[in-house]
Write a structure and sequence with these properties.
Elements: H1 7-17, H2 21-47, H3 73-79, H4 81-107, H5 111-125, H6 129-140, H7 144-171, H8 174-182, H9 186-194, H10 199-222, H11 234-243, H12 250-277, H13 279-282, E1 319-332, E2 335-348, E3 352-356, H14 363-370, E4 379-381, E5 384-387, E6 390-391, H15 397-407, E7 408-411, H16 415-418, H17 425-436, H18 441-454, H19 460-463, H20 473-484, E8 491-495, H21 503-520, E9 523-528, H22 531-537, E10 540-545, E11 548-554, H23 555-560, H24 565-572, E12 623-625, E13 629-631, H25 636-640
Parallel strand pairs: 3-9, 3-10, 7-8, 8-9
Antiparallel strand pairs: 1-2, 1-4, 1-5, 5-6, 10-11, 11-13, 12-13
Helix pairs in contact: 1-12, 2-3, 2-4, 2-12, 4-5, 4-7, 4-10, 5-7, 6-7, 7-10, 10-11, 10-12, 11-12, 17-18, 18-20, 20-21
Length: about 650
């Protein structure tokens, strides 16, 4: 169901429908009304002193009794609402304004600036908040203003730590990586991709901080550093009431009860507002089935017969992506780990290239390194990475973002984590052309509708106004492909785009990628651990093992006669419809090598049935062999002449 009402109305409806939301709204509204009208109605009575009636018990004339100066405690409690709530809101707001942006900003800064910012937060958190507040009050001076500044600054490090922790988790999601590839600036990345996805937790914290601020300001008043006479708030009244607790209990219990009510109601309102601000909790998911794109679902393909290669990349032409000597490193307590080791390959225009290998072979890290998205603390380096003739390593940051945002697009494995859950799908699609092509909103919207239609999403204009969780899994993946097409890239990197989907939807996504390749001429680098998926769509295959490319050949050659023993084992491990079910499935013996202790020589040698002594001591280079293939194997030439399984 598409909602066309205002954002305010939608959020208000979510707050009302939340548990305790309606009660919290009523309580907070009453407190606000009390803060506005209290001093007007009861202000004179609250300040009227009558020492002859000092310390009286509750009576019809004074429902809460009187204090030591004969002032009406109930009138003073009601009148103090304005100052108490005002100071608490101001202190919590000050803490949030200082701490939240600082903590979130650290997440999107460079590594060195991030480390310095985290150390600053840790140092400030080492001091108890009340001590930090006393220190600030000693500088600013006692009184209402000093109390607000002291509590605001004292609570700011906690807000900064919370924002940094939440933002770090959000910054690691695929949709933030996609935004970085597009070239979204730091301010927009923070405002649209980080803060909205942590707003629910932050809103609870801010509202809870209001109640905590009341207590903290009361503590300063107890120490004589907070509100000063003749002003009075609930904290100072509580301090006075404690001294006469056994004589006039209402003098302390009255302010204490109001403090508790204010703290609970603001906390419940924060919880309700968090629920309303999270679209996953109040929007209804679409119940319709995932529409099938044009073409029949073919199911899992068999590698028993090579078939013809798909797409326009059957013959190699103009180089599109040229990678030379790409290496990725990660520091660990045991030393530096190199999950991608000095790999080189070329992708030609219009080609569909598959990268296959077991988990941990370096497939995804290779793609992330090309897009400059290697996660911290990893680093990548290469002799050159050329995209359409431009070396990405030698471009300025602005030019590199421009090239990556227009000529390269990525489709990640999990479409739910690749789409920003806080933004409607349409807003996410139009962002890239607005940033890089300066399209106005209307033109970008029309282009996005066209791209959604290209990937066979029904009712694209209506779907553009929905949130990602209202899409099915297959539809989310197609929306990601539509997003990848927005700037007409030359290369689409699809990292395990079918892994999280069932067989039927897998076939649909494969059909869409093939159609995108044919209709738009975009080259595709498809990463998968399933050689059956690779065989369905690719024209050429790169086989990776332990961070290296060990075979590079056309699909037909790979399927007819795999040269490397590991490639042969991968193909043999794929079950086919005509397999003898009485026999156990083929499996590759042994385990992939530990990246922290890769054996000398060929990394596959401990598992290889054809390994010779040279394989165990000398690393084989990626050499050219007859037929236009490259293989890193000392015995490959001899093995290529022998018949192998298909």
């Amino acid at each position: 169901m598409i909602r066309s009402d205002s954002i305010f109305g939608t959020i208000l409806r979510g707050v009302v429908h939340a548990p305790t939301g309606a009660a919290a709204i009523v309580a907070v509204v009453l407190l606000i009304v009390l803060a506005i009208t209290g001093p007007i109605i009861w202000g004179t009575q609250a300040r009227a002193m009558d020492v002859t009636r000092s310390g009286e018990a509750p009576s019809p004339d004074h429902r809460f009794g009187t204090d030591r100066l004969g002032r009406d405690i109930l009138a003073r409690t009601l009148t103090a609402a304005r100052l108490s709530l005002g100071l608490a809101l101001a202190a919590a707001g000050t803490a949030a304004v200082i701490g939240l942006p600082f903590g979130a900003l650290i997440t999107v800064l460079g590594q060195r600036a991030r480390a310095v910012g985290l150390r600053v937060i840790e140092i400030l958190l080492a001091f108890p908040p009340i001590l930090l507040a006393i220190f600030v009050t000693a500088i600013v001076g006692p009184g209402a203003y000093g109390a607000v500044m002291a509590i605001g600054i004292a609570f700011a490090p906690s807000f900064a730590r919370l924002a940094n922790t939440l933002a770090s988790a959000a910054a690691g999601r695929d949709y933030v990586a996609s935004a970085r590839v597009v070239g979204i600036g730091t301010d927009r990345l923070l405002a649209r991709y980080i803060l909205p996805n942590i707003a629910d937790t932050l809103s609870i914290s801010i509202f809870n901080a209001v109640g905590s601020s009341i207590i903290a300001i009361s503590s300063l008043s107890f120490l004589g550093l907070g509100v000063q006479p003749p002003q009075f708030d609930w904290g100072s009244m509580l301090t006075e009431g404690v001294h006469s607790l056994y004589v006039t209990p209402a003098a302390a219990l009255g302010p204490a009860a109001v403090i508790a009510i204010a703290g609970l109601s603001t906390g419940f309102l924060g919880e309700a507002l968090a629920r309303a601000m999270n679209p996953l909790l109040w929007t209804a998911a679409d119940d319709g089935p995932d529409a099938t794109p044009t073409g029949q679902a073919t199911g899992r393909v068999s590698t028993a017969a090579p078939g013809s290669t798909a797409g326009p990349g059957g013959s190699r032409g103009i180089p599109l992506l040229e990678v030379e000597g790409l290496t990725v490193r990660f520091p660990t307590p045991r030393g530096v780990v190199t999950p991608v080791r000095d790999i080189s390959f070329t992708i030609y225009q219009g080609e569909i290239v598959g990268v296959v290998g077991e988990s941990g072979s370096g497939k995804s890290l290779t793609a992330l390194a090309i897009a400059h998205l290697v996660p911290y603390p990893g680093t990548s380096g290469a002799r050159s990475v050329r995209l359409r003739g431009e070396d990405l390593l030698r471009l300025s940051p602005a030019r590199r973002h421009r090239v990556l945002g227009t000529d390269l697009a990525m489709v990640f494995q999990d479409p739910m984590s690749s789409l920003n859950p806080a933004l409607r799908v349409g807003l996410q699609l139009i962002e890239a052309p607005q940033v890089h092509r300066a399209l106005d909103r209307g033109s970008a919207w029309r282009l996005a509708v066209t791209r959604m239609r290209d990937v066979h999403i029904p009712a694209p204009d209506a779907r553009m106004r929905q949130y990602p969780h209202e899409f099915s899994g297959g539809m989310r993946q197609r929306a990601m492909i539509a997003m990848a097409l927005m700037n007409a890239p030359s290369l689409i990197i699809a990292d395990e785009p079918t892994t999280a989907l069932d067989v039927t939807v897998q076939a649909q996504i494969i059909d869409v990628l093939q159609e995108v390749n044919r209709a738009h001429g975009a080259a595709v680098l498809l990463i998968s651990h399933d050689i059956g998926v690779i065989a369905e769509i690719c024209t050429r295959v790169l086989v990776m093992y332990a961070g290296r490319i060990i075979e590079d050949a056309d699909l037909g050659a790979i399927l007819r006669a795999p040269a490397h023993p590991y490639t042969q084992a991968l193909i043999a491990a794929v079950p086919t419809l005509d397999v003898d079910r009485a026999r156990p499935l083929n499996a590759i013996p042994g385990r992939p090598p530990d990246l922290e202790a890769i054996p000398p020589g060929c990394a596959y040698a401990p598992r290889c049935p054809y390994a010779i002594e040279r394989c165990r001591v000398e690393v084989p280079p990626l050499d050219d062999l007859p037929g236009g293939r490259r293989v890193a194997c000392w015995v490959a030439a001899a093995r290529l002449a022998e018949p192998g399984p298909v």
